[in-house]
Structure formats: C-alpha cells, structure tokens
Design goal:
Chain lengths: ~140, ~900
C-alpha cells in the first residue's frame, strides 16, 4: 500500500516531473512512462481514473493541459490517491499562484521540494498546505 | 561557466526533434562534466538542478553523483537541500556511493536545525539500505521522541523504511510508535499510524501489542468523525480523510481474527459508515476504506449489512470511479458473503460490457467469482455473447475466464463440448492448448457423444475461419472418429441429420491442408488425421496416400518426416497399419485433471486425488514419498499428454529418465492393476502401441510382477541416474524398466543412508507389503580391486535377488603407507553396456596406516547381464606430502554372476 511513483505529464505526453519511490533503470523508466502515458491519455473523460498496468495501478487526474499520474500497488485506496493529487495541485497553486506547466518546468526543484514534504518513501506524510510550504518559503526568504 | 538553468530549459524546449534534443542535452552534459571537474562551488547548486532536469528527461546522469554528495556535505542550507534532492533522484540504494554519504547523514541527523534534520530523515526514508538502516537506527529512534513535530513525523516514516529493511528492529520501535498515537499533530499521527501498521504487518508480536491500544485509535478516529470544522486539515467538509483512512486500515489489521477487538471498534465503524456523507470524493474514500475494514474484521451481522448496502449504493453510482471501487471491493467480499454479492449479479454483468476497460476487468473477475452450478449456463451465455463484440485487448482474458468457468461448472459433457467448440469458433486464437487438450480428453471419454461431437465439428469446420485451436481439435476428431461421420452412429435426440460421404471428409481435410492460414502444426494434425482415415475410409485410401505424399518435399522438417513415414507405412506396411492407427484408447480423465488441476483450482485437485485411488481399488500409501512422486509424474505425464494428444510418434529420444521410465514402465503397469503409477498409464500404452509393432504389454508386464508397488520409489530416485536416452521404439529399451526400477530403489537407499541398503530401507513397510524386502544375494566374495605400494582398494558386493542386473559395490580404501593421503578421488569407467553411479566417498582423507576406514558406494547396472561379465577401469588420484599421485588399474576379477 504505497505510492510507487508520481508523474506529471503534459498533453503531448512529455514528462514534466518524475519521482520514483523504487529503483528503475533509465530504460525501464522511459518504457514505463511511455506505456502509461499512452494508456492514460487515450482514455476519454467519462471513464474512470484508474488504469491497471503491469503490476501497478495508475490513478490519474487531468488539470488543464497537465496530467498527474500516481502509480500505486494493489492495496492502496484509489479514491484517497485522487484526493492526494488534488492536494498536490492546490499546494502548487498556492505557491506558484495558478500553477501551469512552465512554473513546474522552470522550478522543478521547488516542485520536488513540495512533493518531498508531502510524500516520503511512498507514504503521504503531510497534507496541510501551510506545513508543506513553510520550509520552502523560509528558504526563499533567506536567499 | 555554462548557461543558466532557465536558458538550458528554453533551448531544450525549443528543440523540434528528439535528435535535436539529444544534441542539446549532450552538449549540456559535457559542460556539466567540465564544471564538476573544476569543482566550482559557486555554481554547484545550479549544476545539480540542471542534472535533475536532464535526469527527468530520461538521460543518464550518473556522472553527477559525486557532486550531489559534495553538496550534501556543504554547510549552506540551499546547497544541502538540492544535494539531498539530487541524492534521492539520481542515486538508488544499490550504488556504493551511498556508503560515502552515511557519515554526512549521521551528522545532519544530529544537527540543531530542524530542517536539516528533516532533510536527512527524508533522504534516509527514501533510499536507505539495510546497512545504513542498521547504522542509523539509534539516531532515528531518538528523533522519534523529539519535541519538534516536523522532526517527529519524518522520523516516524523513516522508521517505516528501517523496519522494512531490518525487520528485527520491530521490538525497539513498538513503544515509541505507541507514543505517537497520542500526538496532537496530524502529520505526526498520520506517520505514526503508518508506522504502527508497518510493524503489525511485519510481526505478530506487534499486532498483540497494538491490540492493547485499540481504544486510543478508536478515540482518535471518533474525534475526527464528530469534530466540527477543522480548517488545517479540512477536505471538502471532512477532517483529514488521509488520517481516517490510515486509522481504518490499522484497525482492520488488529480486528482481523479477534472478536473482542472487533467488538471494541464496531461502534466507531458504524459511526463512520453512517455519518460520513458520500457525495464527495473524500467522503467516499473513507466509506470505501470503512467497508473493507468491516468486511475484514469479525463484525456483527448488522454492521456487515451496513457495509454491503454502502457497496450497493456505490455500484449504482453514476461516477465510474465509484463503480470501479465498488467492484474492486465486491471481489474481496465475495468469499466472505457470496449471497450479498449475488444480489448485484445483473448489475455486475452489465459492468462487464462497460466501455471502460478498467471497469470491465474488475467486473469480469467478479462475475467469475459469482458463477456456480446453478447460474453457469446463463452467465456463460452472457459472456460468450459479449465475447463476439469485445475489443481484441480484452478477448484473451475473457476467453481464458470463460474456459475456466465452463471446465469447472459444466453440468454435463455435451454442454461442455458445445461451449468449448463455441469458444474456439468465436475466439480461436485466444484458446490455449490446455483448453483444447482437456476437450480432447473429455471427448475421448464420452463414448456416446463422439459421433455427435465429430458431426458438430465437421459442420462448423466447413465454414472454418482460420481458428487454429479449432482446426486442430476438429482434425484430430475427424481422424479419430471419421467413420462415425459417414455412419451417423450414436445419433442424439434432436440432432440434425448429416449426410457425409467419404470423399467429403477427405476433401475437408484436404482443404485444411492447403489453406494458407493453417500453421505447420495444424498441417501436421491434418497429416496424422489422413493416416488414420486411410483405415477408417478404405475407399479413399489412394487419394489419401497421394495427399500425404504431396508433403514429401515439405520445407518443414516435421511435415516432411511425417509425410515420408506415413507414406512408407501406407505403401510398405499394409499388414501393420490396421493395428497402428486403431482408435486411441480412452484417455484417463481423472489423471489428466489431477495433473492439470493444480494450477486451476485447488479444490478440484483434492477431490480428484481422493477419488482416484478408490476408482482403481488401490489405497494410497500415506507416505512422505507421495509428493515428490506426484510432482515428478506430473511433469512426465505432461510430456506424455502432449505426445499422445499431438499423436507424435517420434522425437522421444531427448526425454528425461523419469519420463522414459513412466513411458516404459508406467504404461503396462497402469493397465495391469496399479494406480500407483501416477501418470496416465493408458496414454503411454496407447502411444507405444500406435507407434511400433512391439507388443508392450507382454514383454514388460510379466517380469514386473511383484515389483509394482516399488515403482513410485523408483520414479523419484531415478531423476539423476542416466537412462541412456533410449527411444521407446526398439525392444532393448523396453526390457530395461525392471532393472531401472530396482536400481532406483537401491540408489534411494544408498542416497539416504550410508549403511547397507536393505537394512535401513525407509520404505521397508511399503515394499514388504507387496514383496519380500530386497535381500542380498548370498555368497559373493569380496575382491581386491587394486593394490599398489601404498594403497589397497577392496570391493564388497550386494545384490538384490529381484534385480539381477544391478549391483551395489562398497569400495573400501586402505592406506598402507605411513603418510597421510589427502584429496583422495576415485574415478571409475565401465563399458557402454553398463551404467555406473558413484556416490561420494565418506572422506577424502586416508590417514596413515588405516585400513578400510574410508568407503564409497558404487552402483552398477549391467544391461548385458548373463552375457558379459563386469569390467571396470579405475583411476585414483591423491596427494602425499603435497605431491600429486595418479594411479590406474583395471579390475578383471569380478566374481561370476554379476
């Protein structure tokens, strides 16, 4: 019951952020990302947000031109992961102010910092936006 | 100096093709490498950030690992921050570089700044190895008691990883983890509950421990459910759904299998199930978790009803996500409460036809769990109808499932045959060979249905649409039962009349033979069918012969061989061919399923196993040897199944010793009276009798008398003994089994005990019921096989009365010198008509002036017993005072009668 990876992908299928909580080689990652993106992006809106792929269950949600994909193992609560994705987006919104693809691209490390505060070793650890952003904002102030 | 991060990203974005992008990245990587070489600390932060970006794009970045480690050791926070991030992204626990970082991490764990401690904990929690976990566990444990909630929560999750890597640390962590359950901070709570869950999953002791604290968890959950608006952790009106879900999951682990604990938590579960509103995703997530918990613990009936009702509501929901989740849960629930799930059957069947493949998959799994004897016909019809319209992706799954259901629940054979034929017609290429094979077994057993089946197949085959599996079954049946097509024997009531002439039959086979869609395997089936038809349809014999001979020049070796062999049977061996292609004996159904059921259905296996011995009037020995025998036989029988089904007369020479023994010994025995031969005995017999002229039953069965019950033992021990790989074609191999059986018996004894075989026979009870225990033949004198200046080797012989060909030799080694011999190795060689097996010697060291201290068992089988005497060459090598000594000799003085 852990998160295996978090992926942010744009409408063209280009990866914009990738965080894995288990080791995959570069080739494996590229292949996996390609397969999953192809599968998820092809699904119409009215279909459910869960796709089973290999031994992963991918839970995805689309925000404008960005797809958030989270890969989990079989035992995870799918609806909770959807809620988690929403929480990630809200957090990024609060930090960047209406987040868009470019914000994440040009501030990749910031996006990672946020994710790092929220998820550790595949488990959700913090969902309060203020707590998540506090260390990052502190760092911004000092530099 | 390099470009700014921003510029690099821009230039990468500007790339129009992948090649262009690769070029830009390669250039950047080169600049980065140079920068790392110069190790300019001012730009390290920026460089690591660039590296991360390149890594995200999927390019190798290993050259930057050291740079991350340097950043971590840097004093400034931003640099550390990016260093740790790089560490987590670019490195993995398999890299030795991680060793270097352990010390920096240890320092950071003891830092006064909470954020630096948090960083180290986070990195440790994401990538630590077992070694690091062991090294740093004390520090992390201390941090669990920190006064700072930011540190506590990270330490808790870090401990989760540590426990996963080093499970024996569970007991150290149980008490601190319990402390976290009363924490006020939600982040700490959520991490603490996760840690408790992890501990419970790792150890039984932890479950017992946390059961004592169930009241605490219940209280926390209750507060969350009834508390009013809590802005910090509110998600659409619900307080911290993530924490609630974690708690429900922990309660599930604790309540499972313990009625008292389940009772303690039932109140709060009922509260969650009734109070949480299901109109928002967050609420549904909690309800979903709650239902799973209720179904997993020992809940009272009322609570279960509540849970099932929630699932019913979910299933009726218009949101696909909710329906998916409902199906997913019902699959888990179906084993607990089938009745409750059956009520939703129609809805579930509808879901199999949903446009969404995720939902279809779940629904299909559920439908299969719901099928039973009473509804199998209705549900199968639904599924088969759907099979016609479904997309190709899904057909494989669906076909396999339908086949499984039909096999498991078929009310009668005719229905079974009909359904599988239908399945092959609709989804021919997705039907696996297992399915077709068991169909053939069933047909072969259903005497009354053979006519009906072959006529049905014929009818459908006229409109063949290239389905491989169907063609093969149809061809096999037409070959086997072609005469029933013409005569219309065994007509069932209500069966449509069918008039077929001999030439029609030959024509349909010919069509298949010439069809471009037919694979070479199918053509091989067709050729064999033709051979059989040449007897069944005497008037068309010439045409058949011509058809077979057309393939004489086939480029496929297999087909060419068949054509030529069959051709020569038809032209030269007219007297043989009648016996050769007569109808296959009935394939043994029970055994076939016993061998195959393992994978399909555990229940079925045991049933059949229970039935089988009775059917044969033979009581199984409750002996440990059973299992390996069955396993070995299953492997062998599979091979045989394959052979008998494909009607393959050659290619046996490579089969393993086991299979061969089964093939040779098992056949006649199975027929004679014993069920202890675990493979399908009839099938072997049939294989052989259809294969060559040798009348097996007479040659092999007679000398086997009295040995039958030893046979399972022989089977198990024979695995590594060489069996010469003889083909079953000629008589020499057929005479073999007796020798091999007793040989196997002896080698098993010798393998388990060092003493004389007959005495410590672990299966004495087994053998003695059927026959006297193998006794040594009296009066075999010991011989001195070899004597040199410093070494004497003497042989003692043991021989079982019932196995004249086998001899067990005990070689004793004596050191006649006053020097110690080390690394003593004896090698022996025998002529080709004998088989030799050397057991390891009791020691490789012969102490000075010792006699007969070291012994070694040598097993011999003389296949020309009575015609040729034993001879053996020996080669001995050992070390004296560090010098290698090599001695050779020939043993010619074996006593007569070996």
């Amino acid at each position: 019951m852990t998160i295996r990876f978090v992926l942010l992908v744009n409408k063209q299928g280009q990866t914009r952020l990738a965080q894995y909580y288990e080791y995959l080689t570069i080739e494996e990652r590229r292949a996996l990302e390609g397969e999953i993106v192809r599968k998820c992006l092809a699904r119409p809106d009215n279909q459910c947000s869960f796709v089973e792929h290999r031994n992963y269950k991918v839970i995805y949600r689309r925000y404008a031109s960005l797809f958030f994909l989270v890969g989990v193992d079989g035992e995870e609560n799918e609806l909770a992961i959807l809620e988690f994705i929403h929480c990630v987006v809200e957090t990024m919104d609060r930090y960047f102010g209406n987040v868009c693809e470019l914000d994440i691209m040009f501030h990749l490390e910031k996006a990672h910092f946020m994710l790092e505060e929220m998820v550790m070793n595949g488990c959700v650890v913090e969902t309060n936006k203020q707590n998540i952003l506090h260390p990052i904002q502190l760092m911004d102030k000092t530099t | 100096m390099g470009t700014r991060l921003r510029d690099m990203i821009r230039s990468i974005r500007a790339c129009k093709t992948a090649a262009e992008e690769r070029g830009v990245v390669a250039k950047e990587c080169a600049i980065l490498r140079n920068a790392f070489k110069e190790s300019d600390p001012d730009y390290r932060h920026r460089n690591v950030a660039k590296l991360m970006f390149i890594h995200m794009l999927g390019y190798p970045t290993h050259f930057g690992q050291m740079e991350c480690i340097k950043s971590i050791a840097a004093p400034s926070f931003p640099e550390k921050r990016i260093g740790y991030l790089g560490l987590m992204l670019l490195l993995d626990e398999r890299q030795e570089v991680l060793m270097l970082v352990t010390n920096s991490m240890k320092n950071d764990l003891g830092h006064t700044n909470q954020f630096i401690v948090g960083l180290a904990l986070c990195a440790l929690g994401n990538i630590c190895t077992a070694e690091m976990a062991r090294d740093l566990a004390p520090e992390v444990e201390k941090l669990l008691h920190s006064t700072n909630s930011y540190v506590r929560k990270k330490a808790a999750l870090c401990s989760v990883r540590i426990v996963r890597k080093v499970p024996d640390l569970v007991e150290n962590l149980m008490v601190p983890a319990t402390g976290l359950l009363t924490d006020k901070h939600h982040g700490v709570l959520v991490a603490g509950v996760k840690l408790c869950t992890e501990l419970c999953q790792t150890s039984e002791v932890a479950i017992e421990h946390f059961r004592k604290h169930v009241n605490t968890m219940v209280r926390v959950l209750k507060n969350l459910v009834i508390s009013g608006y809590a802005p910090e952790y509110d998600v659409s009106g619900i307080t911290d759904p993530f924490l609630q879900i974690r708690l429900l999951r922990l309660l599930r682990l604790l309540g499972n299998g313990d009625a008292d604990i389940s009772d303690t938590m039932s109140d709060v579960l009922a509260q969650v199930a009734t109070n949480i509103e299901g109109n928002k995703n967050a609420g549904n997530a909690i309800l979903y978790e709650c239902v799973q918990t209720i179904m997993a613990i020992e809940a009272i009936a009322g609570l279960r009803v509540l849970a099932i009702n929630i699932l019913g509501r979910f299933l009726a929901n218009r949101d696909n996500n909710i329906r998916y989740v409902a199906l997913n849960t019902l699959v888990k629930v179906v084993s607990i409460d089938t009745q409750a799930v059956q009520r939703h059957r129609t809805t579930v069947v509808e879901c199999v036809k949903d446009s969404d493949i995720s939902i279809r998959r779940r629904a299909l799994e559920l439908v299969c769990a719901l099928v039973n004897e009473t509804n199998v016909k209705v549900l199968t019809k639904e599924l088969v109808d759907y099979l016609k319209v479904t997309d190709p992706d899904f057909k494989g799954d669906l076909t396999a499932r339908i086949a499984g259901l039909v096999q498991k629940f078929a009310p009668n054979k005719q229905w079974y045959i009909d359904q599988i034929i239908l399945l092959m017609v609709e989804a021919g290429k997705y039907v696996t060979s297992d399915v077709t094979r068991s169909l053939v077994v069933v047909i072969s057993n259903a005497n009354a249905l053979q006519g009906y089946t072959v006529r049905t197949l014929y009818r459908v085959f006229q409109a063949w649409d290239g389905q491989e599996s169907f063609a093969q079954v149809a061809l096999w049946c037409i070959g086997e039962y072609g005469d029933l097509l013409v005569s219309s024997e065994n007509k069932l009531e209500g069966e449509e009349p069918l008039t077929v002439t001999e030439s029609d039959i030959v024509e349909i086979v010919e069509n298949a033979l010439k069809d471009s869609r037919a694979s070479s395997a199918t053509v091989a089936f067709a050729l064999t069918a033709l051979l059989k038809l040449s007897i069944r349809l005497p008037n068309s014999a010439d045409r058949i012969k011509a058809l077979i001979l057309e393939h004489k020049g086939s480029l496929v070796l297999e087909l060419q061989q068949r054509a030529i062999e069959f051709g020569s049977i038809l032209t030269k061996h007219n007297d043989l061919k009648g016996a050769l292609v007569e109808r296959m004996p009935v394939l043994d159904e029970a055994r076939y399923y016993a061998n195959n059921a393992m994978g399909i259905d555990g229940q079925q296996t045991t049933d059949i196993e229970a039935l089988e011995p009775h059917a044969n009037g033979h009581v199984r020995q409750p002996n440990a040897i059973e299992k390996p025998t069955a396993a070995a036989a299953a492997a062998a029988a599979n091979l045989i199944d394959l052979l008998s089904f494909t009607d393959e007369p050659t290619t046996l020479s490579n089969s393993s010793g086991n299979a061969l023994l089964d093939l040779l010994g098992g056949g006649p025995m199975g027929d004679a009276n014993s069920a202890s031969s675990p493979g399908g005995g009839d099938m072997f017999l049939d294989l052989l009798s259809s294969d060559g002229p040798a009348p097996l039953a007479t040659t092999a069965a007679v000398p086997l008398e009295g040995l039958l019950d030893v046979e399972p033992i022989a089977n198990t021990s024979l695995g590594n003994s060489s069996l010469n790989g003889g083909t079953p074609k000629g008589p020499p191999a057929i005479v073999d089994p007796i020798a091999n059986i007793s040989f196997g018996n002896l080698s098993l004894n010798g393998g388990t005990a060092k003493g004389p075989p007959a005495v410590v026979d672990p299966f004495a009870d087994l053998t003695s019921t059927a026959m006297p225990a193998p006794a040594s033949a009296p009066g075999l004198p010991s011989i001195i096989a070899m004597q040199t200046n410093g070494l004497k080797i003497s042989f003692d012989f043991t021989k079982a009365v019932d196995a004249p060909k086998a001899t067990v030799i005990k070689a004793s080694y004596s050191n006649l010198s006053s020097n110690i011999y080390t690394d003593f190795v004896l090698q022996a060689a025998v002529p080709k008509f004998m088989q030799l097996q050397l057991e390891p010697a009791t020691s490789g060291i012969l102490s000075a002036n010792s006699s007969n201290l070291v012994t070694q068992v040598i097993k011999l089988t003389n296949n020309m017993h009575g015609q040729k005497a034993l001879v053996m060459k020996l080669r001995v090598s050992y070390k004296v005072n560090g010098n290698n000594v090599l001695e050779q000799g020939q043993v010619n003085n074996f006593p007569a009668g070996l």
